[in-house]
Structure formats: C-alpha cells, structure tokens
Amino acid sequence: MEVIRTTERLREVVDAARGAGRTIGLVPTMGALHAGHRSLVERARRDNDVVVVSVFVNPTQFNNPDDLRTYPRTEEADCAMLEECGVDYAFVPSVDEIYPEPDTRVFDLGPVAEVMEGAMRPGHFNGVAQIVSKLFALVRPHRAYFGEKDFQQIAVIRRMVELEGFSIEIVPCPIVRESDGLALSSRNVRLSAEARAEAPKIREILLASRDLKAQGYSPVEVARMTEDAINDTGTLEAEYFRIVDAVTMQPLARWEDAGACGAVGCATVYCGGVRLIDNITY
Ligand code: PAF
Fold it and tell me: Taking the model in full, what pTM does it have?
C-alpha cells in the first residue's frame, strides 16, 4: 500500500489505473478506523480492481470547534488496518493540501439536507458535499462506499452527485454493531465506562419501535413514544427521533406514504455527553 499525501500523486496513480482499464473504488473516511470502516473497505476490495481510502478529518463539516479539535486521530493504526485489508492507496492529505484556499462553494442540497442533522448542525452537510465532491473529482472512482449509520448523509451525497453530474455508483453498506447492539462509531471511544454500558439501550429502544408499528401506531406516534422511551431511561437524551421516507428524508404522517425504499427511523442521542446516531428501517 502506498500512502499518498498530495493531490498530484493521487491524480497520477488513479489516471494510470483508469488508463489501464481498471475499476476504482473509493472509501472516504475521517480516520479513527474501526470494524465498520473495515466492512466498507472489504466490500470495495471485492468490487474493484483498485481501492483508494481517504483519511481526512474535514474541518468544513464541523460546526463545533471543540468536536473538530477532539476528533480522534489515529493515523498509524489506520494505515496498518488499511494495509492489512489490501488497500492499494491510502490518501492522507493535510488541510492545506485539500483547501489551499477556502472552499466557498454552497451546494443547493434541497430538502434532504434541511431536516434532522441538517437542522441540528448548520453547514455540516455543505461541508460534507465540499469534501466528497473534491474527492470524487480527484479520484473519479467507479464506485464510492458509505456506511448506513449516517443514513441521511447518503441521501445528501446522492443529491450532490446529481447536482455535479458525477457518474459514480454510491454503494450504501450496512451498519456494523458491537455484540450488544451499539452501532460502531469513531466517537464511541469517548464514552465513559458508565455511558458505554447505557449506550446499547439506543438499539433496544429502536428495535421496540418496530413493535409499536406492528401494534398499529402511526409514524408520528411511534416517533413520539420512541423519543419518550429514550428520555425515560434517565441516562440517554434524545436530540431527535424522526420517522422519514428513506429517500426524501421527509417525515411521514402515514406508513403508506413511504416510497419504494420504505421508512427509516433516525435518532441522535446524547449518552454521557457523547453525541451518537443510529437508525432503524421498518
Ligand atoms: O462519514 C464520514 O466519515 C465523513 O462525513 C466523510 C463522508 C468521510 C466526509 O468527510
């Protein structure tokens, strides 16, 4: 595996691969890699001739400076994992390499980006669109891989791809969980022992919301009852729980209003001061 630090070298290797008729898979990450990332990389490895993984903590998608400052950075371990997974190129640029000048682009991401994470974290999705579009323009992969834990992010990236006219297949990959149900996240390392013991309740409560649906409650009722159940734990605090259409991300009044891809319940929950997200399909 070659560790690449410059956009110039990255262009060279991907242009050569494409010129030789090889397919390219890209896995964009912010590092602090765990088994969830590993599953994306393994999938990319199976699907493509050449695999590029970017490791870059993108400052433009953080709306909280403390979150950016304390975001875990584990480059050495990340590169070791990527090498073990058979990655061809790890792209690990500096902030100046990616943003030699400020990125002032504003994407018209529309309604998918206005709700939930978009409403709670102003500017976050525009920052995601900035970095992912830069990576797509640089690597021009055939396929790009994203975890479904960030369900709304995938919808936003699809919108960005449409806006920019990229011809790239977006491949969503299932959430990877700990054996007790907690969704893997780079932020889990911030959980205290007490908070870590409480965090699996998020998954339990989300699973119970499927039973509420089966009992005949509407999406709005299930969402309210689920949010209450999260807050009733006394240790978890729901920032939001919404049941939305899995493509448009718009809240559903009736289950029958969901399109072909169905409904998804998206939660953001504070656990011991750590912001965790998870979701469940119905
Ligand atoms: O999901 C993430 O880790 C990031 O938002 C991404 C897609 C790598 C862009 O920085």
Answer: 0.97
